[in-house]
Amino acid sequence: MMGFAFYQRLRDAQLRSAALERALTSAHLQTLRMQLSPHTLFNLLNTIRGQITWDPPAAQTMVVQLGDLLRRLLTAGEREFSRRADEVQFVTLYLELQQKRFADRLTVSVPRGGLPRVWVPSLILQPLVENAVVHGLAGHDGAVNISVDVSMLEETLVLRVVNTIAPHKAEGRIGIGLANVRERLEVQFGERASFSAAATADDLWVTQICMPLLRDGPDGARPPDAAEA
Length: 229
Description:
Blueprint: H1 2-34, H2 36-52, H3 56-77, E1 81-83, H4 84-101, E2 106-109, E3 119-121, H5 126-137, E4 144-153, E5 156-164, H6 176-189, E6 194-199, E7 204-212, H7 224-228
């Protein structure tokens, strides 16, 4: 009886420890997601401010688009995982807003379909495209091309963002946004995911995520309508 009681106490302690670890992981991930929101909002407000004086109609349109972006941002920030299509729509909206400001310089390419419904960590692409805009425009006055690509290799999902950079630009350090991406992947997938960000010899900056292919979504990853229901 004493041995059984000891086993029960040990088992209860293990369960409490596991529950605490899950809670800490969830809180950690939520903190990493929320760190992205103020940075994104700050940059987009600056983008709209630049339009108000000389093109009020365009600024009004951008305010409407920003409202849509914020709605998506809040919805995605409440979930650990989102559908791949939702993430692509989010970054498409963000890039369209940036294009209105840098229409003479910025060209973007995003996937328009062709993949089955798969799941990715919420807001995982946003810091990659934001970095592509900021990093791509810095240090020169030329045109900038940004491309977003989503592909599958067996049971691995590959997310890649490529942008042109200033010729012979020195490689910069990994900023807060990209560091958050790497940390989130480590927390959620461990060694099953990888992240890389580096300049190439032909004046390109390439960021790439490789993660397990989630076809049906992990536990708790449900479509927004199911969650609301």
